[in-house]
Design brief:
The structure is a single chain. The chain is mainly beta. The protein has one domain. It has one helix at 42-47; strands at 2-13, 16-27. Strands 1-2 form a two-stranded antiparallel sheet. The longest helix is centred in the last third of the chain and has 6 residues, at 42-47. The chain is globular. The mean pLDDT is 92.
Length: 48
C-alpha cells in the first residue's frame, strides 16, 4: 500500500529551479531516505 506519492513535482524560487520533476512513492513499512549535497532541495521536498 502506498502511503506517500510524489509525481512530477516542480518548485521554483525567483526563477531558480529548486525541484525539477521529482517523482517517488513510499510503500507501507518501507524505509525511505533522501540524501544529497547542501542546497539540493531535500528540505524543499518536505515543505511542498
Amino acid at each position: 500500500m502506498t502511503v506517500l506519492e510524489f509525481a512530477d513535482v516542480h518548485l521554483s524560487f525567483a526563477g531558480l529551479k529548486a525541484i525539477d520533476g521529482v517523482s517517488f512513492s513510499v510503500q507501507e513499512k518501507e524505509l525511505f531516505a533522501i540524501i544529497g549535497p547542501n542546497g539540493a532541495g531535500k528540505t524543499s521536498i518536505f515543505n511542498v
